[in-house]
Every structure is written in structure tokens, then in C-alpha cells.
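User: I've been trying to design a sequence by hand for this structure and keep getting stuck. Would you show me what you'd pick, starting by listing the structure so we're on the same page?

Assistant: Good idea, let's start from the same input. This is the structure you sent:
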């Protein structure tokens, strides 16, 4: 169910990168579980009518009929509910620090009957939509390069956990990451937006 899924993601302490296993700091751990922003973004907003720094009360005003699931994670409160995005069911998450929105996104929830090729098509379809608004960069993480460069075998490489597909973009206000790959053994499709200011703060903390 929704609560169990979020609890599993909140327990993720490390990620596997090309440099090896990297421990996630508090903010990076949060960003890792929060990941898709709306495909139709309002000009004055950062995520579904919300702007970075907005309060939970503002979220309630914009969604008066939604029953949110509340999860406490360290100093952050994560509110979520289920919706349909681009034809795919997704968990929508809003993360607050000191009652200020810092990150939001979606976890796509495919039918148990969907295969990797179907998820890859959805990943590419969403990339095309994102490219209409953002300067996306390819940041794929190949853990095993056996199938690298072979587009016909890309779905197999994803299934084997050999690669995590990643598209990223960043401007002064908002950063995004769109990914498809194995996380703790499960094929996971994510897209998240987050405050670039909060990311810079976390990087300064890590450097210190």
C-alpha cells in the first residue's frame, strides 16, 4: 500500500553510483525518495500550483478534497496521495522543512502486468514532454557496460540492474531528475523537482 511503499523508500540510506556506494545525507536521502513534478507547470509555480517555500496550509487550500498521507522523516514532513500522471498511476509527494515546501515529485506505480519495455516507452515519452520546457542532460549511470550502446538491449540492461537511466536539468530556482532503474531490487520510475537553493545548502553542508 501507499504507506508501506513510502516507509521502504524512507529507509534507503545509500545509493550505488559509478564511484561505488555513497551514503545519503538527510537532504539527499529526501530527494532520492521524492521525484516527479507535474508535466504541466504553471508559470508562477514550481509544482502543481505550489511554489518553493509555500506552507502545508497552502497545499490544503489548493487541494481541499484530497486526503493526504502524512509521514514524518527527521525534520521533514512528507505528504502524499495517489493520482494519474500522463496515463500512469503515481504517488504524488510534497516535502516540507519548517513548513516550507522544498521538494515534490511522483513515484510511478505501474500495473503488475506491465513489462520493462512498457516502462521504458513511458520514460521516453515523458522525456519528450520535458524537453519542450527544459534543457535535459543525459546522466545515465552504467554499472555494467556490457549492453551500453545497444538500444535494442536497453530494456534487458535495465532489468539486469546494469544501468539507471537519468535525465537532469537545473536552473537558478528549480532542479529536476527523471530516472528509471533498479532500486533495492525493484524497477522504479521517478521524476522529481526540488529547490535549487536547498540543494546548494546541502552541498555546502557536505563540503564542510
Amino acid at each position: 500500500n501507499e504507506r508501506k511503499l513510502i516507509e521502504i523508500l524512507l529507509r534507503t540510506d545509500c545509493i550505488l553510483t559509478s564511484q561505488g556506494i555513497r551514503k545519503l545525507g538527510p537532504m539527499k536521502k529526501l530527494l532520492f525518495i521524492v521525484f516527479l513534478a507535474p508535466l504541466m507547470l504553471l508559470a508562477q509555480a514550481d509544482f502543481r500550483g505550489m511554489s518553493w517555500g509555500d506552507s502545508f496550509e497552502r497545499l490544503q487550500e489548493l487541494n481541499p478534497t484530497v486526503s493526504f498521507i502524512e509521514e514524518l522523516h527527521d525534520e521533514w514532513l512528507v505528504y502524499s496521495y495517489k493520482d494519474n500522471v500522463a496515463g500512469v498511476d503515481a504517488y504524488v509527494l510534497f516535502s516540507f522543512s519548517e513548513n516550507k515546501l522544498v521538494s515534490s515529485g511522483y513515484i510511478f506505480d505501474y500495473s503488475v502486468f506491465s513489462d520493462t519495455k512498457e516502462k521504458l516507452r513511458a520514460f521516453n515519452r515523458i522525456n519528450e514532454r520535458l524537453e519542450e520546457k527544459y534543457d535535459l542532460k543525459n546522466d545515465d549511470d552504467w554499472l555494467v557496460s556490457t549492453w551500453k550502446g545497444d538500444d535494442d538491449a536497453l530494456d534487458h540492461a535495465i532489468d539486469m540492474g546494469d544501468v539507471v537511466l537519468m535525465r537532469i536539468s537545473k536552473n537558478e530556482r528549480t532542479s529536476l531528475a527523471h530516472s528509471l532503474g533498479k532500486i533495492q531490487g525493484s524497477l522504479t520510475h521517478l521524476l522529481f523537482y526540488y529547490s535549487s537553493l536547498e540543494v546548494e545548502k546541502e552541498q555546502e553542508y557536505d563540503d564542510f
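That's my pick for every position. To get oriented when you compare it with your attempt: The mean pLDDT is 80. The first helix runs from residue 2 to 10.
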